[in-house]
Structure formats: structure tokens, C-alpha cells
Amino acid sequence: MTGAIFILFVLPCLIIFAAFILHRLTKEKNG
Amino acid sequence: MNVYEQMTDPVALTIFIFTLLLPVFVGIITTKRTKNQSDFIVGGRSINKFTVALSAVSTGRSSWLVLGVSGMAYTMGVGAVWAVVGYITAELFQFIFIGRKLREQTEKYGSLTLLDYFEERFKDSKNLIRSVGAVIIIIFLTAYVSAQFNAGASSLSTSMNIPFLYAILISAALILIYMVLGGYIAVVYNDMIRAVIMILGLVIFPVMAILKFGGIKIVLETLKALDPSMIDPFSLSAGMIIGFLGIGLGSPGQPHIVVRYMSVKDPAKLRDSAVIGTIWNVVMAWGAVFIGLAGRAFVNSTADLPDKNPEMIYLVLASKLCGPVLYGLLVGGIFAAILSTADSQLLVVSSTFVRDIYGKILKKRRENIRMSDLTLNRIIVVAAGICAVVLGILAKDIIFWLVLFAWGGLGASIGPALIFSLFWEKTTAKGVVAGMLTGTTVTIIWKLFIKNIVNIYELIPAFLLASLAVWAVSKLTKK
Questions:
Q1: Number of domains in chain A
Q2: How far apart are CA B343 and CA B218, in angstroms?
Q3: What domain range is A1 assigned to?
Q4: Which of B107, B303, B306, B407 counts the most CB atoms within 10 A of its CB?
Q5: B233-242 confidence digits (pLDDT tens)
Q6: Roughly how many angstroms between the first and final C-alpha of chain B, as a whole number?
Q7: What distance in Å separates the CA atoms of residue B251 and residue B277, rounded to the nearest whole number?
């Protein structure tokens, strides 16, 4: 059940979080 | 069981027809904005970040997501998530890195198509890249469009109880009218509207289905009782998980997706599009997975599905759980997914023909007669649409055979060539051609002969070998 909860709820949040992080990192890089 | 039974309800039918006709109104409204070939092919590079984000994501997801992924989740359980993680991650990086660079380069060179860009980037006066690329794009994308028409027409034929021939003609006519009127601008704004329709199908609908069953905990416990592997994300073989993740390698090579980046007004805003697009990609994909999971809890056995086909679970659930208004919209959502992919692909086929083959390879471009180019684009869109319909009717077997290679073939042939050309200065024209040919050949050979022995998705070896070919041939042919 833990695996299912992770892949159904945690993983999508992590991907969206990664998108925000990448957004932030590229802003700093591009000045 | 007829999942389209509810379509006899006048309310459901009216709503469904409304979703089919809405794009035509968008075409009429956007006609005035389409004044030249640049508007027709890349929206005059004036599309805002939000529209680009939703359009790039919607256009990449055909009925494969709505019907295919929900069917996978129905069959294999939560492991189906692996099928969506790869392309979502790939497209996140694409928006930020490939998209921005491609947008800047294509504006610098005045390129309207991907092949325009390759030619200018490598000063390929002999049209070597353009010729090879045009053949690959036209063959794979025409097959794709044809298959989409076919899929749309099959559903339309069953849902409205009309002959297949009429259904395919109606599907094509609905697309062609707004494409001829508004070109790329009509296509991207229709993608936006379809995104809204798809929100109903892939967000509200799965939530409704799960709540109706008593919540996600009960759904998962029911699945566990049916088969414990349904709730184990690692129950799939390693080869299968790698293959699923490898689907993402195909994204950078899809011309109908990357053209979206070329059309954004401000390339710096593609960072914002990346966040918007990723959220939308995640929401749609997980929505499709949740539909499959809830569907399995409702209908325990594939034998109870029409034609024993797991991909029917979306329609089965819709007919079981929804009233006529939502049902009409949900069936409209399937068409939205099919048509939003088909129109974008058709636009790339026609622009490849007009801009690359007619204009550059045959050198019949008439400078400064912009209206003529625009008119020609409009005529070729109709001609390409008719070809796709005829192929869809007469050469169904060949089309479905070609489509098996389409995502992988385009991904492996165009993707590595594009990435190297953008990020490695020393890439040469011959390297790009070698990559395109290697990608296509390896995809076909692997799928036909090697996949039976080594069960890995053909795109992965094809992408790697094509990258190797671009690198090695560029090294050997550097000036």
C-alpha cells in the first residue's frame, strides 16, 4: 500500500516540485 | 454492452455535437489573425506562454492517454504510472532547455519549420537534411493523422450510429474547416478549449468515480483483494519499467510538439510554460490512471468490458456513472484528445510539403507573394487531409503498421539530431543526416526482429544509436 500511495500521490507532487525548482534555477542562471 | 447507449439522449447528443462544432467557431474567429505563412505555420511567433503550455501538452497526448493509459491502469494497476513519468519529465526539460534555444535560433534564422532550421543552421544548400527529414516526417505523420481519423471515425460511427465512411468524412471536415480558416492560431486556441473539456474527463470524472466507490482507500483495498500486484508499483519487470520511461525520449523528436516552442511570443516565458505544462501533464496523466483504477474496482473482469477491451473502461464508467450532460462532454473529451493531435500533425505535414518540399527542394517559392504562400498552405492542408482520409479507408493495414513505428521513429530520427544541433557546436549536416537515418532504421529493425529476443522498447536503442551516429559522423566530417 505504501508503494501505491507513493506513486499515486507523492510522485506527482515531486514532479511538480521539480518543475518549480527548475524554473527557479534557470532564472538565476539566466540573470 | 453498448457504451454509447446514452448518446440517444437528446441532451447528451446536443452537448457532444456542441463539442464537435465549437472548434469551427474558433476557426472563424481566428481567421482575421492569419494574414501570412508565418501566422499559418507558427502563429506569427505571437502565442502567449499559457496557450503554448496547454497546447504543447494537449497535442502530445492523443486518445492514447484517455483510453490507452486508463486501460493500462485497469489491467496492470498503479504500475501504469511508469508509462507517463518518462514523457512528463522529458517535456519539462524540453520546455526549458530545448524550447528556449530552438525558439531563439528559429527566430534568428527566420525558420518556420524544423527543417528550415536545420538547413540554416548547417548552411545545407544541397537540401540533404531537408530531403531526408521531409520524407521521414511526411510518412510517419501522415500515417499518424490517418490513424487518428480512423480512431475518431470508429468512435463517431458507433456513438452516433452512422456509417464509418460518413464518420471519417465528418471528422476530417470538422478539422479542415477551422484549419483552413485559422491555421496554427485556430489549432492552438482549440487546444486550449479542448484542455478545458479534458479537465472534465480527466479530473472531475476520476474524482467523481473514486468518491462514488467510497474513496481511494476502498478502491485500493478492492484492487489488493483482486490481485495484490495491482497496488505494487514494482510488480512490472525492469525491462517494462525502463521501456515505459523510455517513451519520454520520443518527445523532442515530435515536430508537432516542438513547433509549439517556436511559436511562443517571448522565449524567456517558456520557463513559466514549463511549470504550467508540467502541472497540466501530471493532472491529465494521473487522472487517466485513476480512471483505470476506479474502473477496475467497479468492473472486476475484462470479460465484462465490450470486446473484452480494457481501453473501453473510460466509456464504460462514463455510461455507468454520468448523467447526459457530463456523458456528452466526456465522449466529446475523447474526440478532443484525438482531434487536438490530428490537427497539429496535419499542419506539420502541410507545412513540410509547402515550405520544405515545394518551396525549397523544388525551389518553386515565389518571393514576396505572401498571399500565394498562404493560399497554397490552405490548399495543401485540405489535400493532405483528403490523403489521410483516403489512406485511412483504403490502406488501413499499412497505416496501422506504420503507426506502430511513428512515435519511436520520429523520436529517434529527429530528436537526437535536434538536440545535438542545438547544444553541440561541432555537429555537422552529415552527422544530422546519419542520425536521422540511423534512428529510423534501428527503430524498424529492432521492433521487427530484435524485440522478440530483447524485450526493450525500440526507441531506447534507436535513440542511443542515432545519438552515437550524429556524434561519430560529425567528428569524422568536421571541417
A1: 1
A2: 40
A3: 1-31
A4: B407
A5: 999 888 889 9
A6: 66
A7: 14
**B178 or B367: which leads in pLDDT:** B178
> Which residues in B lie closer than 8 A to residue A26 (C-beta atoms)?
96, 271
Query: Cell triple for residue B208?
Result: 467523481
Whether chain B has a CB inside 8 Å of the CB on A22: the answer is: yes
- The Cα B76–Cα B69 span in angstroms is 10
Contact B216 A15 (CB under 8 A): no
| Partners of B171 in beta bridges | none
Contact B257, B410 (CB under 8 A): no
Of residues A3, A16, A22, nearest to B279 (C-beta): A16
Q: Which domains does chain B have, with CATH numbers?
A: 5-395 (1.20.1730.10)
Residue B295: pLDDT band with limits 50, 70, 90: very high
Please tell me whether residue B254 adopts helix, strand or coil conformation.
Answer: coil
Residues B289, A8: Cα–Cα separation, whole Å: 9
Instruction: Report residue B164 CA to chain centroid gap.
Output: 23
- pTM (predicted TM-score): 0.89
The ipTM is 0.93
Cα–Cα distance measured from residue B106 to residue B119, given in angstroms and rounded to the nearest whole number: 11
- pLDDT at position B86 over 90: yes
Q: Which of B378, B86, B364, B116 is nearest to B250 (CA)?
A: B86
Spatial separation of the C-alpha atoms in residues B393 and B390, rounded to whole Å: 5
- Report the DSSP beta bridge partners of residue B264: B47
The pLDDT of residue B364 is: 56
Of B95, B340, B48, B71, give the one whose Cα is nearest residue B194: B340
Which residues of chain A fall short of a pLDDT of 50? 30-31
Asked whether the CA dihedral A9, A12, A14, A20 is positive or negative, the reply is negative
